[in-house]
Amino acid sequence: MKSSFKRIILFLAVAVLLIIPDQYTKQLAVEYLQGGERITVIKNILYFLYVENRGAAFGVFQGAQYMFYIITIVVLFGILYAVYKTPLKDRHFYPMLLVAELVFAGAIGNFIDRVSQKYVVDFIYFSPIDFPVFNVADIYVTCGCIVMVLLFLFYYKDEDFAFLRPVKKENAVSSHSEATPEEK
Length: 184
Known about the structure:
By secondary structure, this protein is mostly helical. Helices cover 57% and strands 10% of the residues. 22% of the residues are buried.
């Protein structure tokens, strides 16, 4: 079995391990929070509160389910492509694998809800900044995006991603076939 294919299988297995707690906590939210009052975890800071989110992150774009399906599928395939193409070098592979795993698992976790229920179950409310109600999948995506931004700002350079760009064959051929003015 080709190593890139093994890498994808391992990537998907880890994603499943991350999706399980997301789906389990959403199931608990439906069972214990739906139709009830909010539960105080830390007074004036953290609460559990059942919300059905029919939009995107933080409730924007309410009711645009088909747009979410398309965007999610494109993002998921893009992540799988990047994982497949990323060289197994410490500088590239492991930091980006962490980001890809978090974003992929979070996207799948919410995608499962959208497909099965037409809404996403949110249940964590952080009150000091009146942050929108969120879930474990949202935490994965948010943490993955924060790590990605930090990597792009402070760790990677533009040339680190040359492996994702297609190779231009005409430049390689033309540079060897044309004589410079000094050679003529």
